[in-house]
Design a protein that fits this description.
This protein has 257 residues and is an alpha+beta fold. The chain has eight helices and eight strands. InterPro entries: HTH_bacterioopsin, HVO_2928_N, WH-like_DNA-bd_sf. This is Helix-turn-helix domain-containing protein.
């Protein structure tokens, strides 16, 4: 089996839901389950983010799912779109959705289902302006067919880039994950990696990164420290198979700061 990983990048103003991700780097969505045929798609997504942003997500989704004229990313009209929040907390949503598209070139899940058929396995993740897809495919010819159809159908405001075609990596046991981190701490870690804080030598200091993010230096340092402590506890528990006693929920630490 081969893992085909590619990303669709959105320009701002193209898609109302993706605009929310672009404007709020702390908002993150990842599929828990997704199933598609050449015409229909069912999926469960886990979203994490600040409370006010998730409330905006609720409002936008409620609007677009009842709006006429919505199109998929490859241009086919959405003829049916059902949406339901199955679980709701201040910083997390579990969302079920069903969508069906009409005539035209369908969105990625439908294209993948058409070329792969029964047994399709895929994952999707949204953050910032990027919508990344991972497909498990058993031959390179199918990879080329999916790539060409998606590439040719995308609008001028969307771009396609391929990250890898390789042995499966993201489908192995995940190990340490980020679902337990508050969005603020996750965003702090991501920024630290992006700006080379963990490289040797460091490309940027915490002070320099905080200036770029327009966040107080002490706040960023605190979030990094708590996120690093959480990752260390997760490593001991997940990788070494032992439990860390009296583990503190990082969300509680964030609230008590």
């Amino acid at each position: 089996m081969r893992e085909f990983v590619f990303t669709i990048e959105y320009e701002e103003g193209v898609d109302e839901l993706m605009d929310l991700f672009i404007e709020n780097p702390g908002l993150h969505s990842k599929t828990m389950a997704i199933h598609a045929t050449s015409e229909s798609m069912w999926r469960l997504d886990r979203l994490t983010g600040p409370t006010d942003v998730l409330e905006q997500f609720d409002d936008i989704t409620e609007y677009v799912t009842h709006c006429d004229g919505v199109k998929g990313m490859c241009g086919a009209p959405v003829v049916e779109w059902d949406f339901e929040v199955l679980s709701r907390t201040p910083d997390k949503r579990i969302v079920y959705s069903f969508r069906e598209e009409g005539d035209g070139v369908h969105s990625i899940p439908h294209i993948a289902a058409k070329h792969i058929g029964d047994g399709l396995l895929m994952q999707a993740e949204r953050r910032g302006n990027q919508y990344q897809w991972r497909l498990l495919i058993d031959d390179d010819d199918t990879v080329g067919e999916i790539y060409e159809e998606v590439h040719d159908a995308l609008s001028d405001d969307l771009s396609l880039s391929v990250q890898r075609i390789s042995e499966p990596e993201c489908w192995l046991e995940a190990g340490v994950g980020s679902d337990g981190l508050p969005p603020e701490q996750q965003a702090a870690l991501e920024a630290a990696v992006e700006y080379g804080y963990y490289e040797t030598p460091r490309r940027h200091t915490v002070q320099e990164i905080s200036n770029e993010l327009d966040v107080p230096n002490s706040t960023l340092q605190y979030r990094l420290t708590r996120a690093e402590a959480w990752l260390a506890q997760q490593f001991v528990s997940d990788a070494l198979g032992t439990e860390v006693e009296d583990r503190i929920d990082p969300a509680e630490l964030e609230l008590s700061a």
